[in-house]
Amino acid sequence: MTAGEHDGCHGVGPRRGGAPTGRRRLRREAWGFAIGSLCFLVGALPWYADAVGPVWTAITFLVGSIFFTLAAFIQLSLSGRAQQPTSDLGRADRLDWWAAAVQFGGTIAFNVSTGVALGAAIAQPDLLGAGWRPDAIGSIAFLVSSGLALAATKDRGELWDPDARTWHGSVLGALGSVLFAISAVGAYVDPVTSTLVNALWANAGTALGAICFLVAAIVSRRAELLVEQERATPIRS
Asked: At 130, is the secondary structure helix, strand, or coil?
């Protein structure tokens, strides 16, 4: 997952009176990714889970997944300014669109997995593995999305918004996706022992992956063109 947004600002003008000037601001969808990542990070901390209990822990994850989905929707809706990867888009923009589309699908899967986990926490707090299947699907989607994002970043100069993909964002997103996948493997419940495959992988993978997504969101920036208005200077006679 990456925190890129496609605002269509390709450059920064010279800083002169009445001329365009530039500043870089946190990308709009980055707020959703940052909040969602923070929720996943907090929810994966054992002492937080011990303090608030399984229901509120599950609520924390559900809220995080919702913010992920909102951010991913913004990213997809702005990707290449196209609603589908039509033939008139360049290769980089098509990869960018598919990366955003697959990522959005992955966040939907996380909505399902966290919703199922919340239902299970309310009905049977000690139940392990609730919502694992959609969680695994979401993790796979994030891995695929990250691969597409890295491919798009390779040709980022051809993107209609070159700031949409950056190497630090794409690499952090890919690392976070790998860690989420490790978490999904660790969270699988062994049918023989009825225990997690590896509780450390499950918690650490989620927490470290969330940190990667959080950092990627925080450092993402977009160029914004501004037009400075000249201040009228009264002429003294």
From this structure: coil
Nearest residue to 1 (alpha-carbon basis) of 159, 181, 130, 156: 181
The contacts of residue 141 (CB under 8 Å, 6+ apart) are 102, 103, 105, 106, 109
Q: Could you read off the pLDDT of 204-226 as tens digits, one per residue?
A: 999 999 999 999 998 886 644 44
Contact (CB, 8 A) for 22 and 13:
yes
* CA separation for the pair 207, 180 (Å, rounded): 9
HSE toward the beta carbon, residue 194, CA cutoff 13 A: 2
- pTM confidence score: 0.80
* CA pair distance 75, 77, nearest whole angstrom: 6
Give 189: exposed, middle or buried? Use CB within 10 Å, 0-12, 13-18, 19+: middle
